[in-house]
Amino acid sequence: MRLSDIPAPKVPPEKEEFYREYIAGEKWASARACRMVYDGLVCAVCGSDNLLEVHHLTYDRLGHEHGDDLVTLCHDCHMKVHGWDGKEISMNDYGIKPCPFCGGEAELIDEGGYVKIKCKRCRAQSSNFKRTHPVFDDCATEGLVTRWNRLTRAGRCGDAVR
Q1: How many CB atoms lie within 10 A of CB 136?
Q2: 77 and 95 fall within a common domain
Q3: Do 72 and 111 share a domain, yes or no?
Q4: What is the DSSP letter of 78?
Q5: Which end of the chain offers a freer environment for a tag, N or C, measured as fewer CB atoms within 10 Å?
Q6: 38, 67 Cβ separation under 8 angstroms
Q7: Number of domains the chain contains
Q8: How far is CA 89 from CA 18, 52, 93, 141, in A?
Q9: Distances from the Cα of 34 to the Cα of 29, 70, 93, 119, 133, angstroms
Q10: Are 52 and 36 in contact, with CB atoms under 8 Å apart?
Q11: Alpha carbon distance 162, 143 (integer Å)
Q12: 26 and 66 co-located in one domain
């Protein structure tokens, strides 16, 4: 499969809240794992087995995906499909809430095998998460985002450091 053959659909605005809840749930984790196994635990574009993620080719059946609605991609190819630079994902792309300290835009940063969330304005950041498992790291990254968002909603900053 070529990168140019892979669509990058946007989650329809009316499905965004459902999408965030669904992606953090067990049903998605199961669908994701099944698709990765189906694709041989490698990226469908480059064949890498490092930092695998599952990409939606369509959101038409969100929550009830058919196998051909999804494709396994490595992190780098997934970033390229979406036109991201591979280092930073804005809060709008991943559902990351504003910084609990200053309200500035936060970003997910993937560097040197670690991911963290960092505020672009005041530089507050979450603890680092080490990527170690090619299949389950995406779920853990989603968990990191969920923890950051809870800090924002609750107005607490216990997990973030300056």
Answers
A1: 15
A2: no
A3: no
A4: H
A5: C
A6: yes
A7: 2
A8: 20, 16, 6, 12
A9: 9, 10, 24, 34, 16
A10: yes
A11: 20
A12: yes
The owner of tokens 């990351």 is: 96
Question: What sections of the chain are H helices per DSSP?
Answer: 16-23, 26-38, 75-82, 91-94, 137-154
At residue 131, the pLDDT reads 60
Of the candidates 123, 125, 115, the residue with the CA atom closest to the CA atom of residue 148: 125
Domain's final residue, options 82, 97, 124? 82
Residue with tokens 């809060």: 91
**Same structural domain for residues 69 and 130?**
no
pLDDT at 40: 92
Range(s) of the domain holding residue 111: 88-161
Q: Which residue has the tokens 């997990």?
A: 159
Within this chain, do residues 93 and 134 fall inside the same structural domain, yes or no?
A: yes
Q: Tell whether 76 and 100 lie within a shared domain.
A: no
Residue 58 has pLDDT above 90, yes or no: yes
Q: Whole-prediction pTM value?
A: 0.56
pLDDT in tens, 110-143: 776 677 888 888 888 877 766 654 444 555 666 7
Instruction: Give yes or no: residues 99 and 144 share one domain.
Output: yes
Residue 116 is inside which H or E element, if any? strand 114-119
End residue of a domain, out of 82, 104, 124? 82
Can you tell me the distance from the alpha carbon of 67 to that of 31, in angstroms, rounded to the nearest whole number? 8
